[in-house]
Design goal:
By secondary structure, the chain is mostly beta strands. The chain has 2 domains: 162 residues, no CATH class; 174 residues, Methylamine Dehydrogenase, Chain H (7 Propeller), CATH 2.130.10.120. It has 1 helix and 30 strands. The strands form 7 sheets. Strands 1, 19, 20, 21, 22 and 23 form a 6-stranded mixed β-sheet that branches. Strands 2-30-29-28 form a 4-stranded antiparallel β-sheet, with no helix packed on it. A hairpin with a 5-residue loop joins strand 16 and strand 17. The two termini are 34 Å apart.
Length: 353
């Protein structure tokens, strides 16, 4: 496999990433906060091509978790049962994935029931699992196929749900600790696992075959983005994530067999890539050593990094970028925390701030 690195702004994006050109006057994102004011532990899950977003938040009085849908400026709280609901992804048909507590006993024992939630009919369908497992549905594609993870004691396996069939899967080298990370509309999957020596591995899974993600010189390859509930393989098959190096952590993409490495300029400690848009805009986060190692977002296009910080915030983490280039993520300041969508007006695209 060919490999290109861009430790100081000299990466040449491969053609398969369809690198976007920056206009003479690039646009500015419009930032919208999504979770209710005063809510605690807000988490953004997924975004579809229509800029519809799902996630969850916790009520500061009852401490119950609620799912939510944000669509065309409208916020809708979603609850399945009475004990806690979490939404993790949404496809182009407004079908979401997630999990919930089916009873008070399940909430007490952190035992999840995985589900598919139709935001149009406001109804849910459980992914079939016996009660020995705590399982979470984490991603869904246009065909309605789901990827997730199931726990049984200390053991964890990824699962693929192609209704009505469910398959539990372990990556090579990690039979007891495998996580389902991401799925695209071509039924390509990303999974990660940890072996008994605590070495981390990530793989793509296509047509029943695993392929190891192995950036040259990298170790502990992580296919998660800038949050523990999201990963990325876009509909062009481009995978994103991070990997360990001798000096820190770099982000990476894998497209058509070619790895590209990312390290935000002057910040070699940690850079992570959360995803790539259809036009080739790369989005992720980095630790800013000049600001107490605060997490900052970035977009990368035409060989240039652009920092992204939600106005008024001290930290911004980009969790995902959709096909049209909209960003979702989490932010915090000294007095508040929240989740956001950043949208780029079509007549200004691509946006860089």
């Amino acid at each position: 496999m060919a490999f290109k690195t861009n430790m100081r702004l000299h990466t040449v994006m491969v053609a398969l990433l369809c690198t976007a050109a920056v206009p003479a006057s690039a646009g500015s994102y419009t930032y919208t906060s999504l979770a209710p004011a005063g809510s605690i532990q807000p988490v953004v899950g997924g975004i579809n091509f229509h800029d519809q977003v799902v996630g969850s938040f916790q009520d500061p009085t009852t401490y119950l978790s609620h799912g939510f849908l944000w669509s065309n400026g409208k916020f809708t709280q979603i609850d399945v049962g009475s004990w806690g609901t979490f939404l993790t992804d949404i496809n182009i048909s407004r079908i979401a994935t997630g999990y919930y507590y089916a009873s008070a006993a399940d909430a007490k024992n952190f035992r999840f029931t995985p589900m598919i939630y139709n935001t149009v009919t406001k109804s849910h369908t459980d992914v079939p699992f016996d009660k020995q497992y705590s399982a979470a549905a984490l991603g869904i594609n246009a065909q309605g196929n789901v990827i997730g993870s199931a726990f049984k004691g200390y053991y964890e396996k990824a699962f693929i749900f192609n209704p009505p069939h469910r398959l539990q899967v372990s990556v090579p080298n990690a039979p007891d600790a495998t996580v389902g990370v991401a799925i695209n509309d071509r039924n390509e999957f990303v999974m990660s696992g940890v072996d008994q020596s605590f070495n981390e591995y990530s793989y793509t899974y296509r047509g029943g075959k695993f392929t190891l993600l192995a950036p040259p010189g990298g170790a502990s390859v992580n296919a998660w983005g800038c949050a523990s509930n999201s990963g990325s393989i876009n509909n062009n098959g481009v995978v994103a994530g991070s990997y360990g190096t001798s000096t820190g952590v770099n982000g990476f993409t894998l497209s058509g067999g070619t790895y590209t490495s990312y390290s935000f300029p002057g910040q070699p400690v940690q850079t992570t890539v959360s995803g790539v848009s259809a036009a080739g805009v790369v989005a992720g986060c980095y630790l800013d050593s000049n600001a107490g190692y605060a997490t900052k977002g970035f977009v990368y296009l035409s060989n240039t990094y652009y920092p992204i910080l939600v106005p008024g915030s001290s930290t911004t983490s980009i969790v995902a970028i959709n096909g049209r280039g909209s960003l979702i993520g989490q932010y915090a300041s000294s007095s508040s925390q929240g989740v956001f969508i950043a949208q780029c007006p079509a007549n200004q695209a691509p946006c860089t701030q």
